[in-house]
Amino acid sequence: MPRRSRVGPRPLALHLMAAATSYTSSNAALPLLKNGLLRWSPALAAAANPLQKDLESASPDALAAAVESAARCRLGAFLDGVARYRGHPYRRQLAPPPAVWSSGTTRLYDYGAGKGGLPILLVPSLINRAYILDLYADRSFARWLADQGLWPFLLDWDAPGGAERQFGLTAYIRRLEAALAVVADLTATRPAVLGYCMGGLLTVALAQRQVSGIAGLVLLATPWDFHADRPAQAAGVAGVGAAVEGLMAVLGELPVDILQMLFAGLDPVLAERKFSAFAALDPGSEKARDFVALEDWVNDGVPLAAPVARECLGGWYGANAPAAGTWRVDDVAVDPAAVTCPVLAVIPAEDRIVPAASALALSDALPDAQTIRTNAGHIGMMVSRGIDRQLWPKISNWLLRLS
């Protein structure tokens, strides 16, 4: 059976255009740089002054040739990295355990195999595949928790089906309540709940609605105040939502590539840096495997049901509804002050997706929250090397104390 070809990095045309535009415009910017007409970033001001003097004294023709050569080299490295990634032999082989419950396209997997321990319902985002918590055997948060004496259950939302395309956030939270009830019934124990990113927002609403049904709540990189750090960027995200309203009305969902475009907007040249670095790796190395495994997950996203997309882009990012107290589930405002169970909030310091200020606004509003910080990034907190020694034990120890 032939291997399925890769489609990433998604959206490929956007990443190719961003890299090509960045490098082919370099020589066009040289006269502006030499004349001091191109404004430097404030963070680069100290280094810019001596560089400006070098530019003024450099031979125009020699400098243009050097810039052209460097641009071609760096663009070539990026293209080489993309080609190597798309042709890499790694394919994820790790299968989840059998599903113990399903509803529509949602499935619940039991990673504890009935061994006992405090049950933990793991709730990922709606827009990324759940297997980021089970990437491969030696980098699986779900399996690691089971090895620590806990009983993890992983909720897999999957892509919206016919029914889910009509779902708003309230409908998904009701389905989350059903999954929580299944875990409680199977284990005869009040579970703890762990929410990751967008999944964390869903679990805050869940904890408010199920006050007596949750032993504790862990929030990983969970945003709350969407205007806390980058309000202009939040407004831009809301603007994209309004611009694609016609497309969502036709499809009933927000396509994956538009979601990926929003993520790419956080750092337009991130893909170029990542794939250029990948081109220099030994393809058979563990680092190369790690890169490919993670990129496969990044590019294996799922669309967002149109009603959910409207609530998130217009409500969360545009109106800052969670922090403003206007996000409502079943016509009741979601209020962190109503969450009475103990909470552990994990704030990654290197998070490009959820600024620390946004996540801290939530932990500050919770009545019984402990906050820990980690030097990892938004995704690195689940997959980076050594994270099972640096961060994960802090989470498992907190959960074990709930038992």
Please tell me about this protein's structure.
The protein is α/β, with parallel strands linked by helices and 403 residues long. The chain has two domains: 12-87, no CATH class; 100-229 and 303-400, 3-Layer(aba) Sandwich (Rossmann fold). 49% of the residues lie in helices and 12% in strands. The chain contains 18 helices and twelve strands. The chain has helices spanning 12-24, 26-34, 45-57, 60-87, 141-147, 169-187, 198-209, 231-243, 245-251, 256-264, 270-279, 286-298, 306-318, 321-324, 356-365, 380-383, 387-390, 392-400, and strands at residues 99-103, 106-110, 119-123, 151-156, 192-196, 217-220, 253-254, 304-305, 328-329, 332-333, 343-348, 369-374. It has an eight-stranded mixed beta sheet with strand order 1-2-4-3-5-6-11-12, with helices on both faces. Strands 7-8 form a two-stranded antiparallel ribbon. A two-stranded antiparallel ribbon has the order 9-10. Strand 3, helix 5 (141-147) and strand 4 form a beta-alpha-beta unit. Helix 4 (60-87) packs across helix 11 (270-279). The radius of gyration is 23 Å and the shape is globular. The mean pLDDT is 93.
Spell out the blueprint of helices and strands.
Layout: H1 12-24, H2 26-34, H3 45-57, H4 60-87, E1 99-103, E2 106-110, E3 119-123, H5 141-147, E4 151-156, H6 169-187, E5 192-196, H7 198-209, E6 217-220, H8 231-243, H9 245-251, E7 253-254, H10 256-264, H11 270-279, H12 286-298, E8 304-305, H13 306-318, H14 321-324, E9 328-329, E10 332-333, E11 343-348, H15 356-365, E12 369-374, H16 380-383, H17 387-390, H18 392-400
Parallel strand pairs: 3-4, 3-5, 5-6, 6-11, 11-12
Antiparallel strand pairs: 1-2, 2-4, 7-8, 9-10
